[in-house]
């Protein structure tokens, strides 16, 4: 869905230039993303016409009910059947949006990437600042003994995955419906947004809470919305672009990544090393004590004695007469 302004000739280009300028002027950018960031990697979203919630679950339950805590406890076999087929995409790879955000991070402008996705694609792309609000399918743990397992363990297991140590159920480290988000992740996200001088919200319909309310913590009105469909913040945002998140970010974020300067050792350390070496056990030639005249004479006589001995030793002995 596009806005009326987007239909005007040149409107899109003007918006992209405006976003470029906003990024250029900013020093503390925060990105808040949803399922739409990963759709270009082949992972379906939840609420669009072709989203997971509008697909057949393959079971006699609705998808929105299956991914709840109560369903997980009551029907674990059905949960894992759906989970493996619909929520795990081990072959998915980062797209232009993920890579553009990593470039912005390496340029020193992007300070936090807050994601509602559980696919690990931001980290695969190289992000060092990702805050995962809803966890990750790549992390799994035993409910009883807390032993950790990777995604392959879940995908290769049959039925309900069981811990190899204690036999407990191994569950994904993701936040299901009816479960609370980790307080630490929420706190970190809010702290980052409070410091931000530009908040870019992309690939999300802003209907999932509490992420939908995070914009209220921004101390300015510098909010940019990039999403194919409308959100409740469209009219309040400084800039709204209804377009592909990957195309937009790849266009407006520079391809230039500054090289890291080689680290130089502090001057104080260099001086300390030179001082230490000069005060070592070896004595330089200039520091050798001068010899007295008597010592020189003694050295001379001993040297002559050594020379005469050497000459005497070098002369061949005469053969005795028979």
CATH class of one domain equals: Alpha Beta
Low-confidence stretches: 1-5, 270-298, 300-322
The shape is: globular
- How does CATH name the architecture of one domain? 3-Layer(aba) Sandwich
Average of pLDDT: 84
Spatial ordering of strands, largest sheet: 3-2-1-7-8-9
Distance between the first and last residues' Cα = 129 Å
Annotated CATH homologous superfamily of one domain: TPP-binding domain
Could you spell the SSE succession in H and E letters? HHEHHHHEHEEEHEHEEEHHH
Q: Kindly provide the radius of gyration, computed on alpha-carbon positions and rounded to a whole number of angstroms.
A: 36 Å
Major β-sheet, in short?
Answer: 6 strands, parallel
Total beta-strand segments: 9
Topology, element by element:
Layout: H1 4-7, H2 11-25, E1 29-33, H3 63-66, H4 69-74, H5 76-86, H6 96-106, E2 110-115, H7 121-125, E3 130-132, E4 135-142, E5 148-149, H8 151-156, E6 170-174, H9 183-195, E7 198-202, E8 223-226, E9 239-241, H10 245-252, H11 267-278, H12 293-314
